[in-house]
Every structure is written in structure tokens, then in C-alpha cells.
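User: Good morning. I'm curious how IPE would be positioned relative to this chain. Could you predict the structure with it bound?
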Amino acid sequence: MKIPQHVAIILDGNGRWAKKKGMPRNYGHTMGAKNVEVVCKAAHDMGIKYLTMYAFSTENWNRPKNEVDALMKLLESYLKNCDRTADKNNMRVRVIGDTSKLSEKFQKQIAELEEHSKHNDGLNLQIAINYGSRDEMIRAMRAMTKDVVNGNMKEEDISEEVFSNYLDTKDIPDPDLLIRTSGEQRLSNYLLWQLAYSEFYFTDVPWPDFHKEELEEAILAYNKRDRRFGGLTEK
Ligand code: IPE
Ligand code: IPE
Ligand code: MG
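Assistant: Good morning! Here's the predicted structure, ligand included:
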């Protein structure tokens, strides 16, 4: 079986999952956060090297304050736990997105975790927090423009590769497979540049119910795809 090197996941459906059980949306987020660890372990066991999880979008600030607060608290506590388990699981953790909008305390915690886990070479886990692909590209363009204006780079040196290196996903290969749970079939501003040639897999299973078996099913579907990259033979 072909194992994708990089799997990106839009973990969706926490709220609807909870509502169906007669529970508040935030209960869905708590259970969804627990599931991140389950899927990380399953991915690592299957030999996946990179996993990128969409945890909070630049648009998610539009949700009610109590939900935003609960999500931030859960993310902070998830990352605190990661700090303890990263070495045990040989996991390198990075956060993508505009972290400058997060609380000082949270930013410090993220920087420490990234530094602490940077030599681990098992699973590479990227967590997207305050991430929006359009925002990421605008930040990249600003940084690139600055380098051109300051004379550090010439306009004619700008290439796809150079641009990629200004993105938050610098040094991370493009995803081979994108999974979105819970029935929606859209990208919601996720990795628009990086997903140019990825395979897409949509499932009705809500995120809190998406476990090892569901991940295996997605990998099986991926194996039936014929990737061409615009040519005629698979790369
Ligand atoms: C995914 O679940 C988690 C985040 C977007 C933070 P949702 O909160 O989007 O759940 P639904 O889609 O409303 O069911
Ligand atoms: C996308 O899910 C963002 C995350 C999973 C963090 P949303 O639930 O926010 O997306 P829409 O609003 O349904 O497009
Ligand atoms: Mg949703």
C-alpha cells in the first residue's frame, strides 16, 4: 500500500456531533481535541511523516465569544500536553498561521514547544491556528516585497520555489492527501497554494468519530487514485 508522505486534515463537525447528542457545541470541541492525539498516533503507526491539522481559521473569530474562548483554552491545553508527549512520541510540532494575534502567553508556549521538539524526527505535526491561506499569502507577499525593496532579492528571482519559502509551510512538502470530515466539500481557506496537486477525500464521519479505521479507509481510497501532475505517468 502507498502511504502518503503528507496528510492535511480539515477537522470538521465537532458542533454538529455534539448537538446530535443533545450536548453543547463546546463538548464537541473537547472530544474533538482528544481525537487529535488518537489520529496522530494512527498516522505515525501507518508511516505518515507529515500531518497538518486545521484547528482554528482566521474566520473562526466570527464565532460567539464563549466558543472562541473555549477553543483557545483547548488549544493551549493541547499544546501544553504536546510539550510533555513530543519527546516520548518522537514528534516535531510546528504551528502555522498568524500567531501574532494570539495571547502573549500562548505565543511563548508555542515558541517553546517548537524549539523543544525541533530535533524529533518521527511524525511532523503542523497545527494551523489563526490560519487562513489568503492571509498566509499576503503575509508572504509583504515579506517578499520588503526583501525586494531592501535590495536583498531581485524581482526576477521570484519563483514558485522562492514564494513557497515565504509561506508558513516552508520546509514542509506539499500535502499528498487532503481529508475533510463531516460532509462539507470545500476548502474554507485552507492551504490553497499547497493543495494544488493533492488528492481530496471527503467523508460524512464527524471529526470526533474519525479514528484509525476511518484514516485507513481514506488511505485506501488514496491508493485507488491515479496521480498525474499534468503529465501522463505517475511521478
Ligand atoms: C470543527 O468543528 C472545529 C473548528 C472549526 C474549530 P466545527 O466547530 O466547525 O463543527 P460544525 O462544523 O459546526 O459541526
Ligand atoms: C474550517 O471549518 C476551519 C477549521 C476546521 C478550523 P469551519 O467549520 O470553520 O468552516 P466553514 O465555516 O464550514 O466553511
Ligand atoms: Mg464546521
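The mean pLDDT is 97. Residues 151 and 218 are 47 Å apart (CA to CA).
Let me know if you'd like a different ligand tried.
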